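Hi support team,

I'm filing this because I wasn't sure whether my run with magnesium ion finished correctly. The job status page said complete, but I'd like someone to confirm that the output block is well-formed before I use it downstream. Pasting the exact inputs I used:
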Amino acid sequence: MTDPTPNVVDPTVEGDDVDTAAIVNALRGVIDPELGDNVVDLGMVKRLERSADRAMHVTIALTTAGCPLRAQLMRDAKARVGSLPDIDVVKIHFGEMTADERSDVMARARWTARDNALKTDIPPTCRILAISSGKGGVGKSTVTANLAVLLADRGYTVGVLDADVGGFSMPQLLGIDSEIEGQRASEGKAVMKPVSKPIGDGALRVVSMGSIAGTNETEAIMWRGLMLNRAVQHFLEDVKWGELDYLLIDMPPGTSDIQMGLARMLPRTDVVIVTTPAKAAQQVAARAADMARKGYLRVAGVIENMGPSANPDGTVTAMFGSGGGQRLAGSIGVPLLASIPLDTTVAAAGDAGTPVVMENPDSAASAAYRDLADIVITDVAPPIEIAECSLRGTLIRAGADLDGARARAEER
Ligand SMILES: Nc1ncnc2c1ncn2[C@@H]1O[C@H](COP(=O)(O)OP(=O)(O)OP(=O)(O)O)[C@@H](O)[C@H]1O
Ligand SMILES: [Mg+2]
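And here is everything the job wrote out:
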């Protein structure tokens, strides 16, 4: 098999210190959903070159020139490479693989299908968003709960992973009181089914430490003990997620190991940073963005929470100031995705276990959450539709049984 490492053309700009390792890692976040792996390890990235006008040129070889995933790959590659510091313009060029290259890719895809099944059940077509912040208490969990409900309401199957192991809040915020079904599989491993909740035309699939229990308290303690160490990894490895369009990860406060762990385990995760308009919150949020990038995760945007709210008399109350989200977004070079007003109904709905978008859809905060959901669906993380791409057809004709490989690997 040929080496999948891209051919890196030395920077042509004098004094240019382009970090090619960072670019390659950013491209590892670009997944070819049909082949179930990233474009770098599949050997699809052929060339990286910085031109004299400082644009970064990335050449990706497609399995077939007419591949319907072309637009999606272009968009993802541009977004990821473009989010790196010092790279403003990204140009993606597409080529077509030779027959030999195609057979290499097919071999790699078969291998990955086997390999991936051991690591996680999250489908390659699932969009993953980690809701992160520098400071605690800025509203990550509330944003996660409301966004999850809205995406589900629009017909998507939405996984929610409560990565705040010590301070879980998803069961409370989403009004979930049933428990994760767990079974101890061989070698001390557990197999878990998320708690499922139908919403509108879609469904939520929630995994949280708060939903881990057993038939009695002793069993619950045993379960939690088994889980506490490396809980997030367990959630990724041992949960049978089933079909998922989105996975939202509610992150613990701070720039923790969990973020770095995610970068290693799920490099295609996009990070969204929540901040309040207050200056102190912005500064720590900028550090959180920096950490995400050090782990080569793409920062997809900023959400300002607890922003200015309009009073019935037309005046505006800006409890924590205003414009902080926009300033942060500008300083880290990503879009501001939403500004959600400070609104007492948000907190009350959370306490009642029904997110405000369900409990009080007419509130200003609910309208802001709906705009956020629109932006997520249309821009930040459009759902990945597997179009008929001829390579999958070729793989199947060639006898490569991707789903079978997954199932078999699972049995092992
Ligand atoms: N827009 C809002 N208006 C009013 N209250 C809000 C708003 N967003 C969140 N809250 C309230 O602020 C508190 C903190 O929110 P939340 O728990 O979502 O923050 P967090 O960032 O997840 O916190 P932690 O870092 O502890 O996990 C909660 O009581 C929540 O109801
Ligand atoms: Mg939280």
